[in-house]
Amino acid sequence: FLYENKIGYTYHNGDVDELIKHIKHLHDNTKLRLNMSKRASKIYKEKFDAEIVYNDYCDFLESFVEPPAG
């Protein structure tokens, strides 16, 4: 998800050198860091905003309920 959307990096748990490499890369590349931040904010608003998540969850729950007869 992070690489697909160009919003961050991953690293192997416990691999401090890999984490440091990513932090330095973002520190040294302001334009990249700002672009990642803008994309991450946009994706958050489109997919993870509370109202969107709530509405999607309600739709999901309603899909299990039979409509009233009549």
Textual characterization of the structure:
The chain has 4 helices and no strands. It is mainly α. The longest helix is centred in the middle third of the chain and has 19 residues. The mean pLDDT is 89.
Q: How do the strands and helices of this protein lay out in sequence?
A:
Elements: H1 2-5, H2 16-28, H3 30-48, H4 50-62
Radius of gyration: 19 Å
Shape: elongated
Outline the biggest β-sheet. Answer: none
What is the rounded distance between the termini? 45 Å
Low-confidence stretches: none
The portion of residues forming beta strands comes to under 5%
* Assembly context of the chains: single chain
How many helices? Answer: 4
SSE class: mainly alpha
Report the count of strand segments: 0
Mean pLDDT value:
89
Give the topology string: H per helix, E per strand.
HHHH
What helical percentage do the residues reach? over 70%
